[in-house]
């Protein structure tokens, strides 16, 4: 069948995408004509004129945070497979596998403690 | 293939596409209506908490307030900042809206035309991706408030995402699959363990949707309206709809994960499920009405130093209980 090419989930996603673009376009078409005005073109800063561009260097902590997030997201990826297999094939897994699992979590917690000690988690 | 065979194939294809279209339209229509009413409920609830009436002029008791607001927002003029093109300005809200509503692909109702077997993973992927929408919205329009709001929002949601996904996996450990529907029809949870898990999950849900007491994105006195400060009219409408739809989805996941007793039956289970979703969404409103705002550095400390180790411990404990 031709439909089998078109996955149901994919169709829904495309539909939502088209809908969101459509709503944005509708708002642009239906909206009132813009009266050009200098104050409308600059960024809003509570009634003041912006002094400089907002593209300034930013706090380094956010960058460190993003790096930490990457590390721990990998951990989440490891959990995915474990969580899936626990109910179904856990009995057939050897006790060594369980041991490795706990070792993994131990190392992970150790890493967290190290980062907290180091001060990269202090805000 | 002869002519008649081709004709039959065409009819089948058309019929299939029609089927898909109708199911998508129905899902989206119902979700958008429910989000609109959720906005009304929130304003009413906040009014009641503060001993005032909330919106009560539009139609009967202000029920259609959200619809009227929507119409008004779409009629407003769309003013663009000078520094960027119309396309990039419109891109951010579109991505936010798309991320928020594509989540309803995994909505676990018994009448659904499709069933997503890895729905939980899809949920995690999309909620990670929605950070890009926030980033585009806040960073592209050259405004300081929007930039700070977006930075806060991103840092908050990526910090709490690790915690949230660990709690989520702990709960789905007992289901043994990533199918949200199976999570709904799996009745297991009424222990002390699940109560603790529920508390962790609710904190994660509040932080992930940037709700009070963790609403640093738009701390009114500090950042005006957070990352969406430059948007008015249709863009703002899309962003607001996305925000409230995320809250609805989070309360839906809460219902599926923790209050799923009696939800496995066909029609009756659906009704119980909807009642739970409404109740938990209202809980979000009550929390906003009662809790004072937290502090940003404390929020980060809470996530990385307390909640994340706790949730990892919970996961190990859950694995031990489960096997």
Any chance you could write out the topology, listing elements then pairs?
The complex is a heterodimer of chains A (123) and B (323).
Chain A: H1 8-30, H2 38-41, H3 61-89, H4 95-118
Chain B: H1 3-49, H2 65-75, H3 86-102, H4 119-140, H5 144-173, H6 180-184, H7 192-208, H8 220-223, H9 234-258, H10 267-290, H11 296-322
Helix pairs in contact in B: 1-9, 1-10, 3-4, 3-9, 4-5, 5-7, 5-11, 7-9, 9-10
Transmembrane segments (chain B): 20-41, 82-107, 119-141, 153-176, 188-207, 271-290, 302-321
Subcellular location (chain B): Membrane; Mitochondrion inner membrane
Catalytic activity (chain B): a ubiquinone + NADH + 5 H(+)(in) = a ubiquinol + NAD(+) + 4 H(+)(out)
Overall structural domain count of chain A: 1
- Overall mean pLDDT of chain B stands at 85
Q: Domains counted in the coordinates of chain B: how many?
A: 1
Assign an overall shape of chain A: flat
How many angstroms does the end-to-end distance of chain B come to? 56 Å
Note the gap between the termini of chain A: 57 Å
Radius of gyration computed on alpha carbons of chain A: 26 Å
Q: Which range does the strand content of chain B fall in?
A: under 5%
- Give the structural class of chain B: mainly alpha
Low-confidence stretches of chain B: none
Helix count of chain B equals 11
Protein name (chain B): NADH-ubiquinone oxidoreductase chain 1
Membrane topology (chain B): Multi-pass membrane protein
Subcellular location (chain B): Membrane; Mitochondrion inner membrane
Main location (chain B): membrane
Please explain how this structure is put together.
The complex is a heterodimer of chains A (123) and B (323). Chain A has 123 residues and is mostly helical. Chain A has a single domain (1-118), classed as NADH:ubiquinone/plastoquinone oxidoreductase, chain 3 (Methane Monooxygenase Hydroxylase, Chain G, domain 1). Helix content of chain A is 65%, strand content 0%. Chain A contains 4 helices and no strands. Chain A has helices at 8-30, 38-41, 61-89, 95-118. The longest helix of chain A is centred in the middle third of the chain and has 29 residues, at 61-89. The radius of gyration of chain A is 26 Å and the shape is flat. Chain A starts with 7 loop residues before the first helix and ends in a 5-residue tail after the last helix. The model of chain A has no long low-confidence stretch (mean pLDDT 78). Chain B has helices spanning 3-49, 65-75, 86-102, 119-140, 144-173, 180-184, 192-208, 220-223, 234-258, 267-290, 296-322. Chain B is built from 11 helices and no strands. Helices cover 71% and strands 0% of the residues of chain B. Chain B has one domain (3-322). In chain B, helix 3 packs parallel to helix 9 (234-258), helix 4 runs antiparallel to helix 5 (144-173) and helix 5 runs parallel beside helix 11 (296-322). With 323 residues, chain B is mostly helical. The longest helix of chain B is centred in the first third of the chain and has 47 residues, at 3-49. Chains A and B meet through helix 1, helix 3 and helix 4 of A and helix 1, helix 2, helix 3, helix 5 and helix 9 of B.
